[in-house]
Amino acid sequence: MKLTTKNISLEHPARREFLQATAVLTGAFVIGAFVPFAKRVYAASAGGPAAGIRDPNVFLKIGADNTVTLLSKHFEMGQGISTGMATAVAEELDADWSKMRCEFAPNNPALYQNLAFAPYMVTGGSTSMMESFTQMREVGAAARAMLVGAAAAKWNVPAAQISVHKGVVRHKASGRSAMFGELAPDAMRLPVPEKVELKDAKQWQLIGKRAPRLDSVEKTTGKAGFALDIRRPGMLTAMVSRPPQFGGTAVSFDAAAAKKIDGVVEVVQIPQGIAVLAKDTWSAIRGREVLKVIWDMSKAESRSTDAIVAEYRQMSGSKGLPALRRGDAAAGFAKAAKTIDAEFVFPHLAHAPMEPLNCVLELRADGAELWSGSQLQSIDTYVLSKVLGFKPEQIRINTLLGGGSFGRRGNPVGDWVAEVAMIAKAINGRAPVHLVWTREDDIKGGFYRPMALHRVKAGVDSAGRITGWQHQVVTKSIFTGTPFEGGAVKEGVDHSSVEGVVDTPYAISDMAVDLHNAKSPVPVLWWRSVGHSHTAHVMETVMDDLARTAGKDPMAFRLGLLEGKPRDIAVLKLAAQKSGWDRPLRKGRGRGIAYHFSFGTRVAMVAEVTVKDAAYKVERIVAVVDCGVAVNPDVVKAQIEGSIGFALSSVLRNQITLNKGVVEQNNYNDYEPTRIREMPKVEVHIIKSAEAPSGIGEPGVPPLAPAISNALFAATGKRVRALPLTLV
Amino acid sequence: MVTLNVNGKNEEMDVSPEMPLLWALRDRLNLTGTKYGCGRAMCGACTVHVDGEAIRSCSIMVGTVAGGKKKITTIEGASGKVAAAVINAWQKLDVVQCGYCQSGQIMSAITLLSKNSKPTDTDIDLGMEGNICRCGTYVRIRQAIHQAAKSLA
Asked: Which residue, B77, B105, B125, sits at the end of a domain?
């Protein structure tokens, strides 16, 4: 069968076209803009939207029942951002927390763009609270001023005499009061204040305190709505048979057996493979099982992991792209009294969120509607409009809760959205299509944390100072070829390949970092903490090795390299204190420290391990975090606990390996996430801070592996460098 | 025709007796609180109760539990003292993150506490071993089970 659908390049979307498409979105009136009571049409000013729109009509719905619903521009994948943004709004609004609700905003980047990734509507890079903290407080303050204004007009009293407390607007002198719901229709028609004054941190009632999560009830009663739970009339479930090696393509297929399966409706070819459409999930699974496909593997990845590592090793010995040149690393290294030379190998990793990728697409004559849990509505809008031939404003996206993501639901080439669009197009939009990936599809489906190989040569002088640091990084670029390339890749150096190395907070005066861009048809993607997921392990284990080489305590050695950096020092010192760093441990136990700065946040972790023969157990993690203002300290704590549980699986065992191009892992049996019995005791200490909030979804991941590796070294005297960490 | 007793109601449906219970619940009865995670009884996201026992619904055929005699309970029908204590503890401690695995976690925790009213950490680890949480909420799952046990004592 020949391809009937127009193929678009999925690996390398045309950046210029993408920018043009999104310019259309951001520059003009946009269908789908939320218009609340006031029926106000919000048109972005010519030349793009103003930074930080604070119009409450865009972000809030105040109901007659006094509920305040935030239209969240950020996707909730478990990180707690719905609760976080609602806290910022409620604080300035002086709202009653029990009346706060959250819904997801429509795909309208003119209104709901991430200010850190303008003009795109994006949830990622641990930017959400950082970029929206001021904006959401301003929205709350503006809404409060407008509610007060409405009350003042209604009661004919001066606004200055009106107070607001827990959702009640009150004029003390006259004894009048009203709830938000009563005042909202008038309030929302008032002009948005030109300027709003925000509370001083000392006046905060909600920020920095414990506000219960907004999504706990629905998520503990089976009512939470994920994309997998969407049901549309006449909907068909689609499963795609994809090439067994990355880069392969379907030549032909035989659907006779599949069509004999009860419930299978149709089998169609799309550029990504062969799609089986059925009336229910089980029929689709069985139909795909018996589908016969002939694949062309001539351009596919056919190497095994060992061969790729060997190639990376060879590349690390050649000259790379200069990612950092500071001082004279070679001369510094040459004059060292003691040196170390270490190689690190990191495997591909799958995100493996509990909810496998899926989404529902419905085509109509005048547009398309998508139900999906996605981090990148701007990309999905672009991909759908491109494949389906619609204008971006004809695409409506209903963002739903995500059953985990860790980066996987934020794909710059929109892989699974492109699939559903191709399928819907192939059946001429006859029925709504629910594309569902199985767990096997997820584990074998690519878009992995890229493999990486690091080689570090570093030395210390007789006083224990680092004299030179030469660092080679070999990995495949994540950002090259994506619409985000411009911001992330400079002269071939993808910052995400070397982040955590080139911007290390440690004072290393003579340092050189070379990057080698590996090529492979294996698609790669940001995986919770992106480059930091490997660079922190290298930096922090080498730091430990250097400390021991210099005969210094690892904690003291680090502190010595952080002079003039009080926030970093405070985090390390508190970690030492809370973990009992100086207390001796029993034989067979080990304690290790790691410290890393990522996404604007500082995290130190002290790991305690027990070792018995070749087996080890992580007993306890003491974590200290400085993320600026902790808007919801309990969410911050949960993110650090969760990051430990998430990252531990890649320390203990997770890796994606290729055998002649074929992924060897299948499901949770051979790509097994952390189990409850493996979860260490976790203590999280948050530094009290008045600084702007920084990231929290990702920074808990990077320090875990090196803290454990350093603890294993302390217990055994053996250094394990490759991840996963295996004692032999 | 197959009859399933789900959440106290007999439900008739025209499905193959070989269809996994998970898909009958989700695709036929629209009880979407029970989740698909792995399809191989390795993650526990699909955990339901059959006569009070925690069962992975992805790996049990409809035919095995059909006839109306076996009582199937999903998260939507979880009720009683133990269920209320577990759900309450889960909410009080804000255990959830993405929430996708939590229906299964809660169903397993209800079975655990129904059999062992005062579980130790080790009992919890054993009882909850079949339920994966990729968000890593295990610290709070342990705490919530202890708290539910305490509230039931």
From this structure: B77
pLDDT 10s digits, A425-460: 999 999 999 999 999 999 999 999 999 999 999 999
Q: Are A171 and A161 in contact (CB under 8 A)?
A: yes
Structure tokens at A657: 């390996």
Domain housing B90: 81-152
Contact assessment for residue A346 and residue A452, using Cβ atoms and an 8 Å cutoff: yes
> In terms of domains, do B68 and B87 share one?
no
Question: Given an 8 Å threshold on Cβ–Cβ distance, is B23 in contact with A280?
Answer: yes
Interface of A with B in 388-447 (CB under 8 A): 401-406, 438-439
Residues A353-389 have pLDDT tens digits of: 999 999 999 999 999 999 999 999 999 999 999 999 9
Tell me the CATH number for domain A31-219.
3.30.365.10
Identify all chain A residues contacting B139, using CB atoms and an 8 Å cutoff. Answer: 641, 645, 679, 681-682
Give A483→chain B minimum CA distance, Å: 28
Asked whether the bond before A119 is cis by omega within 30 degrees of 0, the reply is yes
User: Residue type for A529, please?
Assistant: S
Whether A407 and A124 have beta carbons less than 8 Å apart is answered as yes
Burial (CB < 10 A; 0-12, 13-18, 19+), residue A565, is middle
Least CB–CB distance from B141: residue in A439, A669, A676: A676
Helix, strand or coil for residue A556? helix
Residues B95 and B70 in one domain: no
* Chain A residues inside the 8 Å CB shell of B141: 676
ipTM for the predicted complex: 0.98
pLDDT beyond 70 at A13:
no
Q: Check whether A33 has a pLDDT greater than 60.
A: no
pLDDT mean over A51-66: 91
The whole-number pLDDT of residue A378 equals: 96
CATH of the domain spanning A305-346+447-716? 3.30.365.10
Q: What is the pTM of this model?
A: 0.94
Digit-coded pLDDT (tens) for A208-219: 999 999 999 999
d(CA A447, CA A518): 15
**Are residue B69 and residue B89 in the same domain, yes or no?**
no
> What CATH number does residue B53 fall under?
3.10.20.30
Whether B85 and B140 map to the same domain: the answer is yes
